[in-house]
Amino acid sequence: MRKLLRNPTIPYGFVTAAFCLGVLLLGIVLANRAYAASADDTAKGDHLITLHDGNQDRGILSNATTLRQAFKEAGINIDAHDMVEPSLDEALVASHYDVNVYRARPVTVVDGAVRVKILSPYQTPEQIVKHAEIELQDEDLMTVSANNDMVSQGAGLHLTIDRATPFTFVMYGKRITAYTQATTVAEMLEQKEVKLASNDMLSLPKSSLIASGMTVELWREGIQTLTQDEEVPFEVEKIKDADRELGYSAIKTPGVAGKRTVSYEVEMRNGVEVSRKEIQSVTTKEPTKQVEVTGAKLPTPTNPTEAQALGHQMMLAYGYGEEEWPCLYNLWMRESGWRTTAGNQSSGAYGIPQALPASKMASVGPDYLTNAATQITWGLGYVKGRYSTPCGAWSSFQAKGWY
Question: Is there a single domain that holds both residue 288 and residue 304?
Fold first, then answer.
């Protein structure tokens, strides 16, 4: 057997270093070839997608135009409740993407006596509750734990909501609905960072227990300034439409109340407001006028009964209340029997309201001798101008026999 001899002129360390250098050069060449192949694939429209799916990472190469298409081609199933970032339908334009998949899992939300089961891919309690469309107050608390009953409920989460107690807090005259996790009034004031001055008063002892729906009032004894928001009522404009029957009413433009901030000088004694004086007012939102359309088309009565019906409608439209109708009915029933052609031969009074002379009614319309609407319009104006109301005119008639 031949024995291999080392050349004494070449150091052993030099041979080892040369071998390592050769390996390094070979790795660089192979890497350059791989980069060139990757660049060539990217140039062809391929996208390198690194998928982070829970504890699993996976890379796929695809020339799909969206993640949805790429996942379908790669056989990756995405449930409708899962969440993918970026979105499944986002257009793929870059050469490389890092994609996170959040798998939906069952979540049992316990909100007092209400239990709701949902599938949610979200990670934090706030996100889960928002996904479940559950409204929370800032003072509400949430805890998340794993489901204990794996047999009936499977893997998932258990989210419990601890609702804060709602109560009414009247602070220096401003009433708000507040919420707290505190058990006493003192703890509530501390949590809400309410500092009491020497002349501040509470409606309840600080040791009082907080209960749902209770009212806690805080005021300052003596004269003080109070600022509050108030509603400004909107005006109503009525437009008469001659093409609509009398009695028709519709809102063309709904009114919207405005807002103003008002400052008052208020004096309090033993928790009771004894005086209030407005010292400043700023309108923060102008009200929007409401426009209403009312019918003004009058029917043409052909007999006294129809004239009475028309008179009733016109009286209400004129602004009188229903309580005035018996007076007007009796007044003109005694005067004319509600006949348009009724005439008094001795005095010359004429028509339903017995105008004297009849020509006075011409100020309303030229058809005053035969038109009931013209006569009633003039008669209502006469009553208002002289007696204010039909009942005032009827009282005068009863006392004198005329009006």
Answer: no
Residue 4 pLDDT greater than 60, yes or no: no
Residues 308 and 364 grouped into a single domain: yes
| Spatial distance between the Cα atoms of 171 and 367, rounded to a whole number of angstroms | 67
The pLDDT tens digits of the residues spanning 231-250 come to: 999 999 999 887 888 778 99
Q: Could you identify the residue written with the tokens 């003004």?
A: 296
* Residue 30, domain member (yes or no): no
Contacting residues for 299 by C-beta, under 8 A, at least 6 apart: 245, 246, 306, 310
Tell me the per-residue pLDDT of 340-371, one tens digit each, with 9 for 90 and over: 999 998 899 999 999 999 999 999 999 999 99
Helices (H), 63-149: 67-74, 125-131
Q: Which residue segment(s) compose the domain that 86 sits in?
A: 47-102
AA letter at 40: D
Residues 185-201: pLDDT tens digits?
A: 999 999 999 888 888 88
Are residue 266 and residue 187 in the same domain, yes or no? no
Could you give the CA distance from residue 71 to residue 73 in angstroms, rounded to a whole number?
Answer: 5
Whole-number Å distance between alpha carbons of 189 and 216:
10
Is 313 in the same domain as 383?
A: yes
The answer to whether 360 and 333 have CB atoms below 8 angstroms apart is no
- What percent of the chain has pLDDT above 90? 62
pLDDT of residue 23: 44
| Location of structure tokens 């928001």 | 229
d(CA 275, CA 273): 6
Q: Which CB contacts under 8 angstroms, 24+ apart, belong to 125-134? A: 125/159, 128/157, 128/159, 129/159, 129/161, 132/107, 134/109, 134/161
Strand locations in 128-194 (E): 141-146, 157-162, 165-171, 174-180
Residues 116 and 95 both lie in one domain: no
Neighbours of 125 (CB within 10 A): 19
> Quick check: 216 and 169 in contact, CB under 8 A?
yes
DSSP structural state of residue 86? S
Cross-sheet strand order for the sheet of 157-162: 114-120, 105-111, 157-162, 141-146
DSSP string, 216-278: EEEEESEEEEEEEEEEEPPPEEEEEEEEEETT-EEEEE--B-EEEEEEEEEEEETTEEEEEEE
Which residue shows structure tokens 């319309």? 365
* pLDDT value of position 45: 57
